[in-house]
Design brief:
Helices cover about 45% and strands about 15% of the residues. With about 400 residues, it is α/β, with parallel strands linked by helices. It folds into two domains: about 130 residues, Aspartate Aminotransferase, domain 1 (Alpha-Beta Complex), CATH 3.90.1150; about 230 residues, Aspartate Aminotransferase, domain 2 (3-Layer(aba) Sandwich). A seven-stranded mixed beta sheet has the order 3-9-8-7-6-4-5, sandwiched between helices. A three-stranded mixed beta sheet has the order 1-2-11. It has a three-stranded antiparallel beta sheet with strand order 10-13-12, covered by helices on one side. α4 runs parallel beside α12, α13 packs parallel to α15 and α14 crosses α15. The longest helix has 19 residues. It binds pyridoxal-5'-phosphate (PLP). The site of pyridoxal-5'-phosphate has 14 residues, from α5.
Length: about 400
């Protein structure tokens, strides 16, 4: 019975061109990869700085594995708190210029955990940008707080909400760089409003860390808001090429999370090589921020190239370049044709993005060469002229 119901729903997804399936990669992550037996230029990974398979990353994982083995095999609060975890947290706090940092097992858990821990009663209010990541939405749903969304990057709407609603604690949450549109939250204005209406500010820097700000420190550096952002979340599975996440803030915040945050408390600590890799990647970024500049130059080159071919794209200097197609079927057709032409960009469709805004979410790496980019621009031109 239930199986038939699920089958029917799946059929419906297929009819609407919303069915999703997995694609199999059989090479290391890099600017070129092998997917289903084909060597293609990869243009939809979050490996922004190309660190995922960097020789230093591999070496760090090997060394850590040799010394400590793999698993941490307990929660941090029981017996899973190992030297590497605290070493990473010190480095992350230094990187974001905060008093403290705390590791989480992934960005999804960090968002769900922080939001539902800081706002946990109907007296509290979470205020979220309409285009925030799904993990922020899930965090609001899991919290017992009231929550409300404001129109994307609309500061007048945000102020209206702040002015009109009373709460014991108000938490404004935004993506520093929005994951599907690649635009940047106006954090200076958000912080100003938060001070005026006594709200906390949390920024999800999943796509900002390693990408914006001269040295890749993310929103805090881009907007020069040192000491002003109450909660900064960063992930390790994107520009830093690994897996996991971290939350930066002052001592009170971190102590509170250690004591109260269920997705921190009730889960096994990250395996040692995973954390050793995070330390190594972060060190590499801190030693050599020129990779951030290379990424930016690649983005400028690619955006200019597409525009010269008459393909309209928006970009604010982040690694995410959305090419909006609108119609689901056309979007899938272009993605398929690009693959045949040697470029892999996944089609992003509802419910990940609003209906009618299906898109090719192009993401670049610092390690794409000019030749990769030129080939991709050519493939886009060809696929567009054939399908649209
Ligand atoms: C904006 C944003 N926040 C949070 C996450 C979740 O991070 P993680 O993949 O580490 O769970 C993602 C993507 O995965 C994201 O794009």
């Amino acid at each position: 019975m239930w199986r038939r119901q699920l089958q029917k729903e799946l059929e419906l997804l297929k009819e609407r061109e919303l069915y999703r399936s997995l694609r199999l990669m059989s090479s290391a992550q890099g600017p070129e990869v092998v997917i289903e037996g084909r060597r293609v230029i990869l243009m939809c990974s979050n490996n922004y700085l190309g660190l995922a398979a960097h020789p230093r990353v591999k070496e760090a994982a090997k060394r850590a594995m040799e010394e400590y083995g793999y698993g941490a095999v307990a929660s941090r609060l029981v017996s899973g708190n190992m030297v590497v975890h605290e070493e990473f947290e010190k480095l992350a706090a230094q990187f974001k210029a905060t008093e403290k940092a705390l590791l989480f097992n992934c960005g999804y858990m960090a968002n769900v955990g922080v939001i539902s821990t800081l706002c946990d009663s109907a007296e509290d209010l979470v205020i979220s940008d309409k285009l925030n990541h799904a993990s922020i939405i899930d965090g609001m749903m899991l919290s017992r707080a009231r929550f409300v969304t404001f129109r994307h990057n609309d500061m007048e709407h945000l102020e209206k909400i702040l002015k009109g609603k009373r709460a014991r604690r108000k938490l404004i949450v935004v993506d520093g760089v929005f994951s599907m549109d690649g635009d940047i939250a106006p954090l200076r204005e958000i912080v100003r409003l938060a001070r005026e209406y006594e709200a906390m500010v949390m920024v999800d820097d999943a796509h900002a860390t390693g990408v914006i700000g001269e040295t890749g420190r993310g929103s805090v550096e881009y907007w020069d808001l040192y000491g002003e952002l109450d909660i900064q979340m960063g992930t390790l599975g994107k520009a830093l090429g690994g897996f996991g996440a971290f939350v930066c803030g002052d001592e009170v915040l971190i102590e509170y999370l250690i004591n109260r945050c269920r997705p921190f408390i009730y889960t096994t600590a990250l395996p040692v090589p995973v954390v050793a890799v995070a330390i190594e990647s972060l060190r590499m970024l801190m030693e050599d921020p020129s990779m951030v500049k290379r990424l930016k130059e690649n983005v400028e080159f690619f955006v200019e190239g597409l525009r010269r071919k008459g393909i309209d794209v928006k970009n604010q200097g982040t690694a995410i370049i959305p090419v909006i197609i609108g119609d689901e079927q056309k979007c899938l057709a272009i993605s398929k044709r690009l693959f045949e032409l040697g470029v892999y960009v996944a089609a992003i469709r509802p419910p990940t993005v609003p209906k009618g805004t299906s898109r090719l979410r192009v993401t670049l790496m610092a390690t794409h060469t000019r030749e990769h980019l030129e080939r991709a621009i050519h493939a886009f031109e060809r696929a567009f002229s054939e399908i649209l």
